[in-house]
Amino acid sequence: MKNNYFDLIDQTYHFPQNGFKLVDGTLHFNDVDLHGLIQKYGTPFKISYLPKIWEKIRLSRQYFNKAIKENNYSGQYEFCYCTKCCHFNHVVRTALKENVSLETSSSFDIDLIEKLHQKEVFNIDKTIVHNGYKTEDYIKKIGRLINKGFSNSITVLDNVGELDKLMELDTKEPIKIGLRLSIEEDPQAAYYTSRLGINKREVVDFVKEKISDNDRVELVMVHFFVDSGVSDTMYYWNEFKKALSQFTKIKKAVPSVRAINIGGGFPIQNSLNFDFDYEYITGEIVRNIQEACKEDGVEEPDIYTEFGKYTVGESGAVIFQVLEQKQQNDAELWYLIDNSLMNTIPDAWSINEKFILLPLNKWQNQYKRVNIGGISCDHSDYYNSEELNQQVMLPAYSNDEDEPLYIGFFHTGAYQDSISGYGGIKHCLIPSPKHIVVDEDENGNLFDYVYRDEQTVDNMLNILGYND
Questions:
Q1: Which is the most buried residue in 111, 126, 200, 373, by most CB within 10 A?
Q2: Cα–Cα distance measured from residue 257 to residue 269, given in angstroms and rounded to the nearest whole number
Q3: pTM
């Protein structure tokens, strides 16, 4: 019976696949020689593979444009990147090279957009969708953008009171607005109706009473968001169809509405067993919108999507060295890595998010069931459950082997840095690892560089006020 790690993967999944392959016994990620990066930079490090970002944007456009053409759909498709998924300059600039629109979620996003405009990488005629709760500062900055000539700035109202706040702005042009619809949460959720969006029982009356004859605003968009993202489930399609019903009612009341915005993006691969038919789901989205519009006799809208995690998730990875193995009892073997899992992939312990976990070397060794532990002092700093079989299997190794075992968590590019507070103070004062960016030049050749070195003691002491 074969029981080395390569055979385990080869017999369980289709491998190689989707950017993962073995070259001379070591794992390559999107043709990036990870073992070579280890020798060049050491561990731990985070990696951002930028070509994956524009690849995902192009794929999304391909799916939607194909569905639009096949259904003879009259609206257009617009791709929005959600900056909250990853705010890094190199990520946002990579997305902007694909001529995307941007979605904001806080007042500081406005400053980010103004910086991009100053550097001539974001034009004032591009669409900006302002989501999230509108604080006073957020509202003021939206007004500032409008008066600077950002003519396609769309403020999506999360509650009816935000309209009154907008009315206090002194703008030269009518304010383009959208409406976010509240949804009924998944039956397993802790509450029935989302706190986000305008109550669907009130929204049509709100439109007729406060918006339809208001020449200070122009209603152009209806926003629909399911937190779990786009999925082929009865729950998702039920909520989607209810949202379409609300959209057509609003469209009849205010014909200026020209777009439906689908928030909550496509899923990303979180297992080598991942299977999602993007093309089919896209076709169903377009077909459902078309049918609802035809049934109620309204014009088919442009379709906006807010894909953040889908855009950047599969571009990221975190690489560790196994420092030590500890056999704590007959059944539990621990692999201790050279950083903290709580700090570097907080989604894994905070909401039990799953990531692709693979070793970078020793694929010919036998495999064992293990638990992975970080070096912090916290009990929760561990990873011991995989998506497919609920067990973590990694190559066994002996302490007298010449090379240590290296492991990687893959498709970690969305949310991890914003949740952990990149560059700030981390649990147990464990430093942020170095950050490596891999990009592609005009000739298609990959190159890498250090975006940020590992956080230093002085940096942390400065933040904590010890060097004042």
A1: 373
A2: 35
A3: 0.92
